[in-house]
């Protein structure tokens, strides 16, 4: 059974993802979660406290997503895993990731430091494969992966499958 605290957080996540952080009130979250607005403030102190809890989850989820890539010893496999990453996110998690992309535009939230371990691993991988500018290659591929992720969240995986195959062939 899900606790009321988790219910509040999940409801906030759902509403923030679908309607935007600034458009959703704590009153609306409480109504949809079936709890009192006071309970939100007791657990999270404020709407920003709810958002901060979601950001903590984002950090944890990002680490979990990147861990297999970062631990990969084969540079070609690491690159292939990074390219495939957006395609492996289960559809049920899309609202969470949509929210993180929205937050970049609506608030001062930035994921730059969360992406750095992946960029570092890609840079190492390109270096191992004797690319001329491994750091730039890593940054470019990171931006491409972010663009693919955005399109997948908006239009689904099928819309990007040909690009995935192209990138895998390119970085073979």
Automatic annotation (TrEMBL):
Keyword annotations: DNA-binding
GO molecular function: DNA binding
Superkingdom assignment: Bacteria
Matching PROSITE patterns: HTH_TETR_2
Cited SUPFAM superfamilies: Homeodomain-like
UniProt domain HTH tetR-type: residue ranges: 2-62
Binding region for DNA: 25-44
InterPro entries: Homeodomain-like_sf, HTH-type_Tx_Regulator, HTH_TetR
Keyword Lipid biosynthesis: no
PANTHER family in the cross-refs: ACREF/ENVCD OPERON REPRESSOR-RELATED, ACREF_ENVCD OPERON REPRESSOR-RELATED
Identification of the protein by name: TetR family transcriptional regulator
Organism: Poritiphilus flavus
Lineage summary: Bacteria, Pseudomonadati, Bacteroidota, Flavobacteriia, Flavobacteriales
């Amino acid at each position: 059974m899900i606790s009321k605290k988790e219910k509040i957080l999940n409801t906030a996540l759902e509403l923030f993802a679908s309607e935007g952080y600034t458009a959703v009130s704590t009153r609306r979250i409480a109504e949809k979660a079936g709890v009192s607005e006071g309970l939100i403030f007791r657990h999270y102190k404020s709407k920003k406290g709810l958002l901060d809890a979601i950001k903590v989850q984002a950090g944890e989820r990002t680490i979990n997503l990147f861990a297999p890539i970062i631990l990969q010893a084969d540079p070609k496999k690491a690159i292939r895993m990074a390219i495939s990453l957006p395609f492996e996110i289960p559809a049920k998690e899309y609202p969470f990731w949509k929210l993180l992309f929205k937050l970049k535009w609506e608030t001062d939230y930035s994921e730059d430091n969360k992406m750095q371990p992946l960029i570092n691993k890609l840079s190492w991988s390109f270096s191992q494969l004797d690319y001329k500018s491994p750091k730039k290659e890593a940054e470019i591929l990171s931006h491409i992966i972010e663009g693919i992720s955005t399109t997948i969240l908006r239009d689904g995986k099928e819309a990007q499958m040909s690009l995935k195959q192209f990138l895998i062939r390119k970085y073979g």
